[in-house]
Amino acid sequence: MEIKVVKHILEANEVIASQNRKLFEEKGIYVANLMGSPGAGKTTLLEKTIEKLKETKSIAVIEGDIETSRDAERIAAHAIPTVQINTGGACHLDGNMVRGGLEGFDLDQIDLLIVENVGNLVCPAEFEIGENDKAMIISVTEGDDKPEKYPLMFQVSSVLLLNKIDLLPYLDFDMERFQGEAFKVNPRLKIMNISCKTGEGLDNWFRWIEERTSKKGS
Ligand code: MG
Ligand code: ZN
Q: What's the CATH number where 165 sits?
């Protein structure tokens, strides 16, 4: 019985997510759903991405957090349209919340919408929001054993950003193990090693998301 209820919620979300997807399609907006644990570096990655791409792409951001508008304030400081969604306890964004957030934008003026999901390695991966790609970021401080322990997010993501690689000398992080597990749960996963602190590897990511966005707009 309980399983039925959960399934029903996910199906109802699927309907709204596909309405969002249709709207994004009509408006030529490329949408990335950025997921990862609290502290993985989601907002910092967004700030770097905005600084790199804002001259050539019209970017908007939806920030999902349980409470506070701290992340939206950081993003809005880069002078791009930003909406903060406070879930008030829910540990993920769903299609309906994102649809509500869209009212804060002029969709005709946006090429790239990045949705920063609530910091959480689990259920954000279960809820479609109408995105083109799910992107996940994880930091080396979270450990090399996470792909098999939390497989869903790795499975549904198109790209995996491994952040804070500047800290590797101080950690017992087994890169081979991590990559092996990640490819085991998702052989199509594109893995990029990055450091938002030093900037290492970020050009790969910038190129990837810029290409996806350009393809969408043309
Ligand atoms: Mg954040
Ligand atoms: Zn949740």
A: 3.40.50.300
